[in-house]
User: What shape does this take?
Amino acid sequence: MRVKTKAYGEIDADERQLVSFPAGLLGFEQFKDYILLDAPQKPFFYLQSIDVPDLAFILIDPFLFRPDYSLDIDDDSLEEIDVARPEDVLVFSIVTVPGEGGTVTANLMGPLIINKANRLAMQTVLGDSRWRVKHDIMAELAASKG
Amino acid sequence: MLILSRRVNEKIVIGDDVIVSVVEVRGDQVKLGIEAPRNVKVFRQEVFDAIQEENKQAAAAAGAQLPLLDIPLRAKE
Assistant: This one.
């Protein structure tokens, strides 16, 4: 499958890289289908829209810089993406990289939940006030290392 | 949009199983009680707006240079 990407131009993507958001992402509800790619730099990933080459998000595993991160998602929500087993769930945070040396942040309030068994995904909203839309990745990484 | 007036302790029923009650009114603040099934998500509008806005900022910046992070890439447990 050929996909035009924001980062790499046109590439060959494997079906196994496909991730579908039946409800889209907040503010991008009309775009459902994405591929998950390695970013040129670990530990980042790209979530690239299949339909719009210019639409892409940078993702990170939030547990890498916030070992204390926790999500309380009710079973009814998980049913939206047919989660049968907890071990099928992958959690990513969307990263915001401002231009010119601004603070790189991750959104822990609205994480992405991917069911790797069927590659269905959703953006969920956490009610826990500890998790905000902007967490300074560098600062929290430093703090987590003590 | 339906606009209606309620007093403290009065309720509104939405559909079969959502009940919104006015718990307290103080100045320009209204405290609401919401009874809904677990599958009905109830959030403050600002929360949705904040995540939507953050998504837009993130998408706009996704072509930018990625930061170098000194993270030990341990396998996920």
Notes: The radius of gyration of chain A is 15 Å. Chain A has one domain: 2-145. The mean pLDDT of chain A is 92.
